[in-house]
Structure formats: C-alpha cells, structure tokens
Amino acid sequence: MNLDFGDLLDVSCLDDALRETFRLLAKDVERTIRARLVSEAAGRGEDGYGIVADFASSLPRRFREGLRRELISRSQADEYAGSLIDHYRDAMPVWVLLEVVPFGTLLAFYLFCVERWDEESRREIHYALKDVKAVRNCASHAGCLCNGFLPDRETRHATSGVVFEWLNAHGIRNSKGRRAKLRNRRTQQLVTTVALHDTLAGDNAAPAALDAVAGLRPLMDEAMSRYGTQNPLVSHLVFLARVLDAARH
Hints:
By secondary structure, this protein is mainly α.
C-alpha cells in the first residue's frame, strides 16, 4: 500500500483511540455487572455474608487458595483497597467482595449466582463476558488492536447467541460479510463488548464511554477514506463502525 512512517503513526493514533474507547466500554460492563449482582442479591433476600461464604466453598481448592492469597497480598500492599480487604478478611460481604476482586473472579461469582438462582438463560452472558474481559485486558495493557484484523486470525470460539440476537435486533442481519468478520477473533470480541455494553448498561451507560465512542467515529471515518476499501483493516473498521452506530440508536 506504499505506507510511509506518517501512515504508521496515524494507524497508531487510531489504535490508541480504539483501545481507550473499548477500555471504557468494558469497564462500564464490569461496573454494571458488579452493581447488578449486589442489587439482585439484596432483592432475593440473600445474606450478604452467607452468599460469599457459599461461593468460596464452591470453588476448587486451588482456586480458593489462590484467591485467599491474592486478597492477603492486596491487604498488605494495595493503598486503595488494602484496608477494606483487611477489615473484612475473616468474613466478607458481597458488596465488599465485588468491590475488590478482579474481573476473572467476578465472572466466577456471576456463574455461581446463575446456578444458585437457577437462571440458566443468563449462562450465555457469562461466557460472552469472557470476551469483554479479554478486550479489557488488551486495552488496559496497551495491546495493539489494528494489527489483528487479518483473515488468518480466525477464532476457535463460536460467537455468543446473545451477540447474534443483538445484531439481528439492530439490523445487522446474518450475511456472508457478517460471518466473515465474526470469524476474526478480535472483531468477535470487540463486537461482543459493544453488544453487551448496550444490553447491560443501556440507558445507564457512563457518559465517558459514550463520549469516547462519539469521538472515535470521526477517526474511523478518516481512516476508512484514507486507506481505501481493498484491505482487511478498512473492511473490519467498516463493520465495527456499523456495530457502534447501531448501539447508538
């Protein structure tokens, strides 16, 4: 494509904007899940301490011991959450657990609640949230996004039915183009993040996340016009832009 160093800088800036936008979207999904679990536990009359004790007992011993060691370590070293963890070390209520555990433990607790409350219809959301976690990790650790929109980066994972339902409901029907884009692992994870953000956060989405999406779109449009149509980067950006636009309407 006869790219020069300026083009690479432009794509790097686009990657920064993509990464920051999706970091905020993933963070918003995580915030929503934490808040909903606390609210639902209260609404179901759960004992705030008892549900955490039952969750810990349900974990495989290796996982349980790993979580215990992590919390002890954070109680000693974490300036922001350490005192909270230390105060509730012997008996931790659900509203504290969900304040201090990482995303991976949050997903384990979500699945525990799905099974405890016999909400099998939400099991699919749990698995889709793993894609959101992957996006959050990439965005938080400055991983590159744009260099993965390639045909050979095919996913080994099926796209969540929750995502298919969202795409269909928002006018992005099943087609050869949609199937081709969702075979790419990165696009699949980014689309899942958008769909779950719209589904879960909805009208309560954080303004910062919505502002980031609005600021990203002109940058995507510029890249799509600059680099033509006959390349994977632009092809995936076009599809992703369509998904982002669908979530805004």
